[in-house]
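Predict structure. Chain length: 230.
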Amino acid sequence: MNFDYNTTRSHLILSEYGRNVQNMVKYICELPTIEERNKYAQAVIDLMGFLQPHLRDVADFKHKLWDHLHIISGYQIDVESPYPKPLPENAFKRPEPLPYPQRRITYKHYGKTVEGLIEKAMAEQDMERRKVMVQGIANFMKMAYVTWNKDNVSDETIIKDLSYLSGGMLRLDEGVNLAKVEFRAQNPRQNTNNNNRGRNNNNNNNGKNRQNNSNNNNNNRGRNNNKPKY
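Prediction complete.
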């Protein structure tokens, strides 16, 4: 008896599609006419999309499937593809490295986004619109401060930092009140204790119910014994 092991089979090019798809693509490459190859290639493309549903969220979903079809065939399949045929050398081409942004952040608890918002607010010519932008930036700064420092922050601190980051160009009106922000840290131990208290209360109630039921049964037995016998 001859056994068919994976080690004796041909190399599986794209394992996520399985060996059956690879055998289908090999069969398509051997078809004599272009009409037959196009027909069966479209059927295999539909099957590949069904096997990889997560690719539907990827841009150019169909384009990627056709590229995979060419790769599985070893770039030998001759079909009329709606997309350009991929080149074998591009499979080994490494992408350009992305440089890590080296930007200095004045106050890290506010982040770089706040500095960008401040620059846009300083470039705004409409004074009414700039006033609204400054108010929103200050509220966001207070929220960011409380998120990272976990302490209450005064409005004076936010106003001072906003003035420093803008070089004194952005200021809030006197007596303005920023949005109230509270940081509520969730204590897992407290939740556990509350859950245990609830369980203990349920257990106590269950115990009381059992005791009451037992007392009622005993009282009923006593009443039955006191009945006259005829």
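Summary: The helical segments are 18-29, 34-51, 61-72, 112-123, 127-149, 155-165, 188-226.
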